[in-house]
User: What shape does this take?
Amino acid sequence: MRVAVDLNRCQGYAQCVYLAHEVFRLTGQEALTYEPNPDDERRLQVERAAAACPVQAIVIDRLDGVEGSATS
Amino acid sequence: MTVPATVAELVREFRANGRIVIVGASLAGLRAAEALREEGFTGSLTIIGDEPHEPYDRPPLSKQVLKGWVAADHTKLPRLREVDAQWRLGVAATGLDRAARQVRTADGEQIPYDRLLIATGTRARQWPNPDEAALDGVCTLRSRDDAAQLQKALAAPPSRVLVIGAGFIGSEVASVCRELDLPVTVVERGSAPLVGALGGVIGEIAAEMQRDHGVDLRCGLGVSSLEGDAGGHVRRAHLSDGTIVDADVVVASLGSIRNVEWLEGAGLASGFWGVGCDAGGRAFDINGVVTDSIWVAGDVARAPHVLYEYQFLAMEHWDNAVLGAEAAAHNMVNLEPHYHPHLLLPGFWSGQFGVNIKSVGVPPFGDEIVFTQGSVKERHFAAAYGRRGRIVAAVTFDHGKWLEYYGKLIEQSGPFPPPPPGWDQPGDMKPIPAEFPQPGVPTAIPDVVLTGHDPSERRAEFRSRRR
Amino acid sequence: MVEETPWQQALRYANRANPYPFYEELRRTPVARQPDGTYVVSTYQEIVTLLHDPRVSSDIRKLPVPVAAPAEGSAEAEPITEAVISLEPNIITQDPPEHDRDRRMMMPHFVGPPHSPHLISDLEPDIRRIVDGLLDHMQGKTRIDAVDEFAYPLPVTVICKVLGVPPDDEPRFHSWIETALDALDFGPEAASEEMQNRLAGGRRAVEEFEQFAAELLDRYAQQPGPGMLSAMVNEDGPEGGMSKGVLVSNALLLIFAGHETTVNLIAHSVLTLLRHPDALEKLRHRPELIVPGVEELLRFESSVQFWHTRSAMEDIHIAGTTIPKGAPIFLAYGSANRDPKRFADPDELDLERRDNQHLGFSQGIHFCFGAPLARLEVQVAVGEFVRRMQNPRLVEDPPPYRHNQIFRGPRHVLVDIDGIRD
Assistant: This one.
């Protein structure tokens, strides 16, 4: 699956880290990093994390089958 | 039929059957494509990108990818909806014929459009000496492939990494090196890291951060030349003070170059700082006249900004790509008075040395700075930038929850210094000079720049980046 | 007699079950001065702005002690909050830098070490076991109380385990908390004889609760044990430990807030879903909707309706009003979460609501400390309740409410059921 975090919105509440620490990590108090393409088995965790974000900064793919990987 | 009715009919027809070409298949290009479909555009959509990869997210490249936690190809961007586009990936656009309304590609095709979105972004500035730049171990960091290559080099591990240029990317690379326990030397022409973006006062704090984490930081110096071994691998660097640094990985983080060369001869207001456009993303031609069929979004766009005296603002920021693309896409399939302006308050972040640095506004527009909250010693603080009694920007170190307060003040052209907080006041709350380098002093170019009033500004091209 | 403000009416016990019509009226004046000088902020945007404004203090010691308006003809009334709020500050009644330091120190004991904050997610199997046990225990019944038999026992069991509070002490602290909560009133009824009588009891209850927490912490100081409280006493972070008084105050906060708000959220979730049979049915068929669904329930019936310890450190201009320096500021989250300027159709329950940046846990530096645990508990509890209850029907609507205005929730939610699935 695919995830991106809008780190301009992110204020370091770390809720995602507590709910899905294999996918989201803090370096220090506030600097968030994450695995942008985690395994599908993490989906529930990631969805929980995205729902819990107090500033709704986590974007999850809304498509399962992905187009665009092929060139013309 | 009345004229407005005819125009409305044309717009309907365009939305249904028009042809849109997006040049640039990164964040801005993808989000624009999605927004076009969201707006109800059902015509043909072609997305041209010079990299062979589908759109990916760049911020992780200089952090979790370099660290080795995340694979470089694990950065594909989430999709918000189907875009039903023709993807032309791995093929660069090489020319634009505005008269014929065609984009020329590297494989010799001419792709016709009714409306065009330019979202070609930037690329890394290479080490200026091509022979030295070609040495094994000399890297830049902008693309996914760059990141994969550099990550591999760091994992080797090298005996020492040399980072040339202490802007955000250079500082983040140095931070990752220290996390990986790699010896790292950072050479910066300016007086301190981040000085172009945040000024000398904050730069000094960034410098202390680097040194505390074991970075061999050398400011006010340049790299004169790089030297390789018989096998063509870089081994050492000669600095401008005559000293030598032995290093087997060299990261040239010299800022970015806007991808505008393909527009040569097209008669658009394109140049060093990108392609001039109005605040709704409509491109200007070279005379400053707005075009009807060409839009610009993302890092390559520069548009006048109401908050900064209508000077053109160029922003290499994540949300500028997203929101600029959405505004441009909306305007491509709508008519005045329903255009959306893209009036973003600039904002960026950088995670380095365990600290989250965030900023809003345009710090270099300010000439003074005042610490407003927290403790510099603990690197847990907020500071505001001012100019002529108005707040124009703010920066926080691990204080991101307070940033939107300053953002609101900036939007309202609030006073500088801003009203004091009710608690946790820093020891000294007197405004001091922010110490931005004089124009012309070489250092990392900040990733948000006011570029003057002229839509086809060329002055900047004469700002030498020679080393 | 002077007409009561919408805020005063919203605070009346008779309106506890449905304060929303009064909130709607209140929002016409986003920042509304009350007769006692308090400024009540009821709209989303203004609340978010103030939550990020460093000129607003949360420090209860900087607040003028609110006093109930004396009943007509009676003498000066008792101070309201003093009775039920301990004197030492805790993280929710503190400003930076002390707030930041103490919260930073407490967090790893709750969520786990920074490099692997796994403690909350590790609790999921335990939470499931407790929920299963509670539901199994109701087998054979045709009428249940969703509060006493379900919403209350889960969070209290979990928080005892997390903190290391002996479960046998539950009846004692339960009674202190009930007594204290019933004595706290910010509305026109505070001056009533009954509320004035409750104040003494509330004060005593808090003292005993404090005594209890202090003794527990002393025991852990001598003999470290499992749980967060022992860790807070024994594992000083690099920044040094908290003073005894602050430790006790934070322990009280953790025990109390660690379950009380979750009880109300589960109770309200059950109540709300039973009132919205379509939503209930949807959730039964699409159990994955529990994740966004709980966010909607947090928005719809916020467990903390407002917060009362903030005050202005400077004159603050907002929404056409100036909150003068020194004035108490109440932020009405329960109203903001129903603000139509922020949420489309705010009085509709939409378990799939897309743009749902609610203030159920507040925002800014005082964002709910226990939010990840609360979310997990409610997702599991409500998800299982919906899955297993056969044909649940609300017996009484509205159900009886507890007295407290901040921590608003039903005292009982009686539900008739046909049975419980496995």
User: Anything to note?
Assistant: Chain B is about 20% helix and 30% strand. The CA atoms of residues 22 and 414 of chain B lie 39 Å apart. The domain at 125-255 of chain B is CATH 3.50.50.60 (FAD/NAD(P)-binding domain).
